[in-house]
Automatic annotation (TrEMBL):
Region (Disordered): 194-218
Role of this protein: Catalyzes the transfer of a geranylgeranyl moiety from geranylgeranyl diphosphate to both cysteines of Rab proteins with the C-terminal sequence -XXCC, -XCXC and -CCXX, such as RAB1A, RAB3A, RAB5A and RAB7A. Catalyzes the transfer of a geranyl-geranyl moiety from geranyl-geranyl pyrophosphate to cysteines occuring in specific C-terminal amino acid sequences.
Residue stretches making up the Rab geranylgeranyltransferase alpha subunit insert-domain domain: 262-361
Reactions that this protein is recorded to catalyse: geranylgeranyl diphosphate + L-cysteinyl-[protein] = S-geranylgeranyl-L-cysteinyl-[protein] + diphosphate
Source species taxonomy: Eukaryota, Metazoa, Chordata, Craniata, Vertebrata
Protein name, per record: Geranylgeranyl transferase type-2 subunit alpha
PROSITE patterns xrefs: LRR, PFTA
Pfam families xrefs: LRR_9, PPTA, RabGGT_insert
Family: Belongs to the protein prenyltransferase subunit alpha family.
Protein EC: 2.5.1.60
Originating species: Dicentrarchus labrax
Keywords: Leucine-rich repeat, Phosphoprotein, Prenyltransferase, Repeat, Transferase
């Protein structure tokens, strides 16, 4: 053990210890076998109760014995009166306290205590709360005890504000008490169950460990009600490097989850295809998706955009040949999401080859909330506080990351330059997580580019030379016809890339792309520019064979161009390509 001087023992002492262990083991095995025999024979007597107690006192994590003990106790309930059962269970609680002294984090002991407390004729919940207080004073992160306390509080009807005061006391004695911060995040929505409007979106969890998860994200206080309490600010100003308070602060600044809805319906006359985008990944084959064309329900087969996805935010179906191909006809489509009792209409007008109906990213407030003047003032105040702390602690990663999220909540485009500078500092001060910060920065840059694209009302997505390391929000690019990803640090085009069902031109020169898995069954794709990447084999190009309209392909500067007979091999693999650059 730590802090104890190791005392050498003689061979004789070792032999004596071995014999003592063997003696104890024989007694233990004999008692265990006796328990198993009694259980097999259906014997539930006091002797069995004593045997299980003897074994569990030394090994409280023997789940089978706890199960047998519960069988015995349930049998005794049928043959004893209420007062006798009360005494038996009170003795059981005392026995359990001795087990918890052996192992305060014993799964079996805590589970059995919960079972006993729930069956006790006249439970003493004050005693149980007192036990929790004692255990948490010894180890304030004993999650078994926290779980048991929540059960006791629920069963005994302890007022929420009283429990909130309990967390105040624990946090006051130890700002680093992560369990108490998390418990607060479950209590506050119960104390204030309704919020007039959701706070702003500071949603990205740190990479090192997950943020506290309240029981429901839709129940959030008005942000001013939360931030009247300066407890959390006192905590991170006292110890800026402790992550517990920062995680809780991030939760306070969080927002409700997005409404479940059909965000876009797209119809193509040329392909006679319908694509539907949802606000979250779904399994369209099981959520009740119904397509109605000109008032008539259609029997169609919905499929995800890539075979790897059973759940996807984008699903497609093909209409029977000739259904909408005549350009002189007008058609009205409705997609019903019966599971959520919602639908979206789309009209394909005469002379049009395609049509869509959608809420834009700006309409959906995907990347920020339209804040009231009151809330903007509160968030500005919080940003000012964090900036003051950052002046004192310029290299504190938690402070920097929170500043980034506050800036994005307030004005993601207006604070773009400052955000990029802070990300660069984060990569330097927390180099072990530089890849995470690179991915998070890429995500924010993509969000900003989507906003800029939609403000400009164009279908061209250009994000070249931004040091992108990953691609995200690809479901928001369903209608994009031209994408420019050149001069970044991308290593693959992931399966989600197949959501770009309208894509005609793909520019991805000067990356490190090795994998084209996501360039899969893109019906309109005509031009792919992949100069100076790391595509090394013909197999890497196989996904392109699923794109029927591909005409131009630039592979200059890729290792695959050194393959023998590359031109003939590509001609066989991609017969539609007429302009091949090697």
């Amino acid at each position: 053990m730590h802090g104890r001087v190791k005392i050498k023992s003689t061979a004789q002492q070792e032999e004596e210890k071995r014999k003592e262990r063997e003696k104890k083991l024989k007694i233990y095995v004999a008692a265990r076998d006796a328990c198993f025999s009694k259980r097999k024979e259906g014997i539930w007597d006091d002797e069995a109760l004593q045997l299980t107690q003897q074994l569990l006192s030394s090994n409280p994590d023997f789940a089978t014995l706890w199960n047998y003990r519960r069988e015995i106790l349930m049998h005794l309930e049928t043959v004893k009166d209420e007062d006798e059962v009360q005494k038996i269970y009170e003795a059981e609680l005392s026995f359990l306290e001795s087990c918890l002294k052996v192992n305060p984090k014993s799964y079996g002991s805590w589970h059995h205590r919960g079972w006993v407390s729930a069956r006790l004729p006249r439970p003493d919940w004050a005693r149980e709360l007192s036990l929790c207080d004692r255990c948490l004073s010894l180890d304030d992160r004993n999650f078994h005890c926290w779980d048991y306390r929540r059960m006791v509080v629920k069963m005994s009807g302890v007022p929420v504000d009283q429990e909130l005061g309990f967390t105040d006391r624990l946090i006051g004695s130890n700002f680093s008490n992560y369990s108490s911060w998390h418990y607060r995040s479950t209590l506050l929505p119960l104390l204030h169950p309704e919020s007039p409007e959701p706070p702003s979106p500071c949603r990205e969890p740190p990479h090192s460990s997950p943020p506290p998860s309240p029981q429901t994200h839709s129940h959030r206080l008005c942000i001013q009600q939360y931030l009247k309490v300066t407890l959390v600010q006192n905590a991170f100003f006292t110890d800026p490097n402790d992550q517990s308070a920062w995680f809780y602060y991030r939760w306070l600044l969080g927002r409700a989850e997005r409404e479940e809805m059909i965000s876009c319906v797209y119809v193509s006359r040329d392909e006679e295809r319908v694509a539907v985008a949802f606000s979250r990944p779904v399994n369209a084959q099981s959520v009740g998706l119904l397509l109605v064309l000109d008032g008539q329900p259609q029997r169609v087969e919905w499929r995800s955009v890539h075979p790897r996805f059973k759940h996807s935010p984008v699903w497609i179906c093909d209409l029977p040949p000739g259904t909408i191909s005549d350009i002189t006809n007008e058609h009205n489509l409705t997609v019903h999401w019966t599971e959520k009792h919602t639908h979206r209409d789309c009209a394909l007008y005469t002379g049009r080859t395609e049509s869509w109906c959608r809420d834009s990213a700006t309409d959906q407030e995907l990347f920020r909330s339209e804040l009231s003047v009151e809330k903007t003032s509160v968030l500005q105040s919080e940003l000012q506080s964090c900036n003051q702390l950052q002046e004192l602690e310029p290299l504190n990663k938690w402070c920097l990351l929170t500043i980034i999220l506050l800036m994005r909540a307030l004005d993601p485009l207006g604070y773009e330059k400052e955000t990029l500078a802070h990300f660069q500092t984060l990569k330097e001060v927390d180099s072990m997580r530089s890849a995470y910060y690179g991915d998070l920065c890429s995500k924010f840059m993509i969000e900003n580019t989507i906003l800029k694209m939609e403000y400009a009302e164009v279908r061209v997505f250009s994000i070249s030379d931004k040091n992108l390391t990953t691609l995200c929000h690809l479901d928001q690019l369903l209608l994009v016809t031209h994408i420019n990803l050149s001069s970044n640090q991308l290593q693959q085009l992931p399966p989600q890339f197949a959501m770009l069902q309208c894509l005609e031109v793909l520019e991805a020169d000067n990356n490190s792309i090795e994998n084209l898995e996501g360039v899969y069954h893109l019906p309109k794709l005509e031009e792919v520019l992949l100069k100076n990447n790391k595509i090394s084999t013909l197999a890497d190009l196989q996904p392109l064979a699923s794109c029927p309209k591909l005409k131009r392909l630039d592979l200059r500067g890729n290792p695959v161009t050194q393959t023998a007979n590359i031109e003939s091999e590509l001609a066989e693999l991609l017969p539609s390509v007429t302009d091949l650059l090697l």
